Amino acid sequence: MLSILPIVYTLFIVITARSTAMAASRLPPVVKAGYYPSWVVDDLPPSAINTSLFTHVLYAFLVPNNVTFGFDISDSTAMILSNFTTTLHRKNSYVKVLYSIGGGGIEPDPFAVMATKASSRKVFIDATIGVARKYGFDGFDLDWEFPESPKAMDDFAFLLKEWRQAIRKEAKMTNRPPLLLTAAVYYSPEFLMYGSRRSYPAAAVRNNLDWVNVMCYDYHGSWDTSVTGAHAALFDPKTNLSSVYGIKSWLKAGVPGNKLVMGLPLYGKTWKLKDPKLHEVGSPAVGVGPGDDGVLTYVQVVEFNRRTKATVAHDVDTVSAYSYTGTSWVGYDDALSTTAKVLFAQALGLRGYFFWALGYDNDWTVTGQASSSWIVDK
């Protein structure tokens, strides 16, 4: 089946592109972004980042103080931030460098309290602009995972509006280019989990953010060990846990494609098969497989496949890759499935794509293929 996959994917992309209103040809400059987690610095120093593959690199993460809502940046962190921006700008002057604020699993969550009052929002906003200018960043990205109630979503909207106003004011006063403002968001604008039922404020997103980084992954994982899953499924014939559902929901909510950037994972999720003879997507499982809490970075997946001589397969229904050997099963995206998703994003008229996370790829194999797959109009 592997040998016919390129043909299947190509036909799929052509059909999709023909059914789309040719929006891709009129998009603003493409976004090819990658988040850079601070903990990968030993394996991937900033000087080793292949900046030719990216238009934007996001340093992850800085977390505001949950009482003052400013940033407590030590001398050592200050040196890291200055080195990060200076190094990347020197390597490639066209690359924009942002820093991402927050991240998953922050305790206590500083955003919910900060966003409730105009005064605390102003303190936070002024602090973000100050950090960006002091350390040479081109902008910032808000990774609030996730506003937990309709009230928090309203506060999120106020925050974005006031942030944009402050960015414009600062740029005018200093005669500098406006800082970029982006946000990492849930795969769908509507929430049925992580709190009460609520929706992102689509109008505030559309009017105030340069774009949103839609996290099109983590649909399945260690929280459900009963069956294997494609954790970044482009399609899912059985549920709404898929990137196509999420992206189309954002479009339907009123956020245009040129404000949407599709998230792509450079890691896989693992399971322990119940029966080694049943090893497709959706097969019975009894627990997590190899890796830390059932997670392997892509470079670890490649090593796992090599070391165990695992069988590599592709699932056309979900547009994903998976490997299996014995009772060990890993679902992930490789260069082939990533190419299909990148082409799909372009055919749908999206702004671009981003990767979580730099340092997880195998010698730039997947990120390089993605960059070359995005077709630039001549």
Automatic annotation (TrEMBL):
Keyword Cytoplasm set for record: no
Pfam families for this protein: Glyco_hydro_18
Range of residues in the leader sequence: 1-23
Sequence ranges assigned to domain GH18 in this UniProt record: 30-377
InterPro entries for the chain: Chitinase_II/V-like_cat (IPR011583), Glyco_hydro18_cat (IPR001223), Glyco_hydro_18_chit_AS (IPR001579), Glycosyl_Hydrlase_18 (IPR050314)
Domain of life: Eukaryota
Transmembrane segments: none
One Gene Ontology term of the molecular function aspect: chitinase activity
Keyword Plastid among record annotations: no
One Gene Ontology CC term in the entry: extracellular region
Family from the record: Belongs to the glycosyl hydrolase 18 family. Chitinase class V subfamily.
Annotated protein name in UniProt: GH18 domain-containing protein
UniProt source species: Carya illinoinensis (Pecan)
